[in-house]
Amino acid sequence: MRASTTAAAIALLISIPWVGAAAQHRDDGLKLYISADMEGVVGAVTGEQLGPGGFEYERFREFMTNEVLAAIRGARAAGVTEILISDSHGNGQNLLIDRLPADVTVVRSWPRPLAMMEGIDSSFDAVIFVGYHAGTTNPDGVRAHTMSSARLADVRLNGRSMPEGGINAAIAGHFGVPVVLVTGDDAAVREVQEVIGDIEGAVVKWNVSFHAARTLVPEAAYALIERRAREALERLDEFEPFRLDAPITLDVRFKSYRPSQVLAYLPIVERTDAHSIRYVGADIIEISRFLAFMLGYDSNAQP
Length: 303
Hints:
There is one protein chain. The chain has helices at about 1-15, 20-30, 55-75, 165-175, 185-195, 220-235, 260-265, 285-295; strands at about 30-35, 80-85, 105, 125-130, 150-155, 160, 180-185, 200-210, 210-215, 250-255, 270-275, 275-280. By secondary structure, it is an alpha/beta fold. Strand 5 and strand 6 form a beta hairpin. The protein is globular, with a radius of gyration of 20 Å. The termini are far apart.
C-alpha cells in the first residue's frame, strides 16, 4: 500500500515538472518580467510626450524610466532578485538604460517574435505592465489603441476584443506566468483587470478624453507604483496565469481596405470582409509571430 502511494506521488510530480521549478524560484528569489509602455505614464496625454519629435519627449523618457525604477524597488522589497525589462513603446528605445540597476537586462528595438513580451519564458515568476493604455475599441482612455493607432481598428482573440495587455498576458500565460500588476490610466487598468482577472492596479491618471487627463504628479505616481508592486508580489500565490483555449482565432480589422486584400493572398489568411482578416494559430506564440509579421514586414527593409 505504501509503495503504491509513493509511486503515485512520484508520477504526479513528474507530470507537472514546473512545481519543483517554482519552489526553487522561491528559495533563490523571484524572477520578474517588466513590460513598459509609455502612453500610460504619469502626465502623458499627446504625441508631444511620446516620440522623438515631441517637445516633451526627453522629459517623459525620464518619467517612464522612473516608473520602471519604482516597480523595481517594490519588487526588490518583495523578494525579486532577477529582472528582465522590455522597452515596449514606439521605437523600443525609450528607457534611459544608464539609469537602470546594473543587474537587470533590457530588450530594445524591433522586430521581435513576441513583441512587447520578448524574452518571457517559464523561468519567470511574475509579470508587471508599466505605462499601459486602453485598447482601440475602448471609448475611454488616453491614447487608446491596440498595437497600431494608425492602422488597426480591432484585434480579437477567440472572438473577444483584446487590448495589448490582454494579448501580452496570454503570451505570459502560455509559459505559466501570471501578470500581477498593471499601471496606467483608469480605463487601461480597468480594462486589463476585466480581461485577465482581479490583479493589482496603479492608476496614475484619469482619462478625460483621448488627449486629456487628470493626472498625479510624478513623485506621487512613483510612490504608488512602488507600493502596488510590492503588494502584488507579496501575494503572488493569489494570481493565476491568463490562458486562451487553443487553437486561437485571430481577427484583425484594419482602418483601410488594402491590407486585408493583400494579406489574403496568403493561403493561411482568410479575408472576412473588406477591412478584416482571420488567421488561426496553434497557440498564442504563432499568433504573436503572425502579428509581428503583419505589422513589421517591409520588402524594402534594410539591412
